[in-house]
Amino acid sequence: MAFTWRAANISYLQYSQICAKAVRSALKQEERLVAQKCEEQGLKFSKWVNGKQGDLQPVSSEVPKSV
C-alpha cells in the first residue's frame, strides 16, 4: 500500500487527523469522551528578557478552519 494520502493530494498531518477522527468516532460513548478530552490542547507563550521568563499568556483558543 503506497502512500495513499499522497494520491489523495493531502498532507500526512491531514491524513493522520482524518484517521484519528475515524478511530474516535468508532469508540463507545464513555471512551469517546475521554479521547475528546485528550484532543484538546492549549498553547501559551512568554517573552524572555535578559535570560528570565516573563508571565505565561495563553494564545487564542480559536483555531481557523481549513476550507
**Nearest-integer average pLDDT:** 79
Report helical residue fraction.
40-55%
* Stretches with pLDDT under 50, minimum 5 residues: none
Q: First CA to last CA: what distance?
A: 28 Å
Q: What best-fitting shape do the alpha-carbon axes yield?
A: flat
Task: Report the portion of residues in β strands.
Answer: 5-15%
Please state the CA-atom Rg, rounded to the nearest Å. Answer: 18 Å
Q: What is the number of helices?
A: 3
The structure class reads alpha+beta
Main β-sheet, spatial strand arrangement: 1-4
The biggest beta sheet is recorded as: 2 strands, antiparallel
DSSP E strands, number: 4
Spell out the helices and strands N to C. HHHEEEE
What does the model show?
It is a single chain. This protein has 67 residues and is α+β, with helices and mostly antiparallel strands. Helices cover 45% and strands 12% of the residues. The chain contains three helices and four strands, in the order H-H-H-E-E-E-E. The chain has a two-stranded antiparallel sheet with strand order 1-4. The protein has a two-stranded antiparallel sheet with strand order 2-3. Strand 2 and strand 3 form a beta hairpin. The chain starts with a helix and ends in a 9-residue tail after the last strand. The model has no long low-confidence stretch (mean pLDDT 79). This is Mitochondrial ATP synthase epsilon chain. Belongs to the eukaryotic ATPase epsilon family. InterPro entries: ATP_synth_F1_esu_mt (IPR006721), ATP_synth_F1_esu_sf_mt (IPR036742). Pfam families: ATP-synt_Eps.
